[in-house]
Amino acid sequence: MAMTFHRFNKRRFFKQFWLTFRPYMLNGYEDPHFEDKIQNIYEQLKPLYLQLHAYVRFKLRQKYGDVVSETGPIPAHLLGDIMAQNWREIADFTLPFPNVGDNDLTQELIDQNYTAIQIAKTAEDFFKSLNLTEMPESFWEKSIFTKSEDKPMVCMASSWDFSDGKDFRVKLCIHITLTDFTITHHEMGHIEYYLHYKNLPVKFRGGANDGFHEAVGDLISLSVLSTKHLRQIGLINTNIDNRVDMNNLYKVSNSVFRPLLKIEINEIIFCF
Ligand SMILES: [Zn+2]
């Protein structure tokens, strides 16, 4: 089947997108300078991001040749995620020190016979270690941790507050992978938030703003991936040299490119 390439008219896309969603997206941030502050943070990250972007382009050109231009847009699907939201899937051939490898934590989880429930219990232990709340009994009874085989089910991870102050659940299809390990922590981060405002009047049971709920989960996910924590819970058992550590950090950075989508759109071509 022939493929057609559609070049984004980025200016028109962003103008239209922003005009439509701006009031909705800024609702709740309560700071008249919020946009300026975000722009400022973005400008601080941009030099690092540009270097990473150039490095990834170089590696993609080594693998795919002239399909990836030296200066033009990068086909999004070559980044391993059709929306180019993260670049995890290209880590295997872009590691900065390919000969020393990295910690294959998915394999470690499998080797240690982790189950879906065990992954969730490990996440709970992490929150408890921060002096946060343990999950209520009903959470373990009513949540879904693995994909149901006998009925149709959408696997997108989610967490739910049933608003009665008692019933909190996650819906996950946990596979024994590092990705699902971090997603489980992220979703439980939402539950922690729910638990902490459960006694407030309904009006106050919500995140401070749209970003805050997600930020709690993502911040937790990043902490969970630190070498120190992984060693503490026995997923890293050997001494690792700095190059392996650098490979691991590079993989973590590949997971957090999503906030920089703005510049990616400048540089990426989508293929349908
Ligand atoms: Zn979330």
Characterise this structure:
With 272 residues, the protein is mainly alpha-helical. The protein folds into two domains: 5-24 and 33-102 and 256-271, no CATH class; 105-239, no CATH class. Helix content is 51%, strand content 6%. The protein contains eleven helices and five strands; from the N terminus they run βααβααααββαααααβ. A three-stranded mixed β-sheet has the order 1-5-2. Strands 3-4 form a two-stranded antiparallel ribbon. A hairpin with a 6-residue loop joins strand 3 (158-161) and strand 4 (168-171). The protein is globular, with a radius of gyration of 21 Å. The protein starts with a strand and ends with a strand. The structure holds zinc ion. Zinc ion is lined by residues 186, 190, 214, 217. Residues 186, 190, 214, 217 line the site of zinc ion. Chloride binds at residue 29. Its EC number is 3.4.-.-. The active site is at 187 (proton acceptor 2).
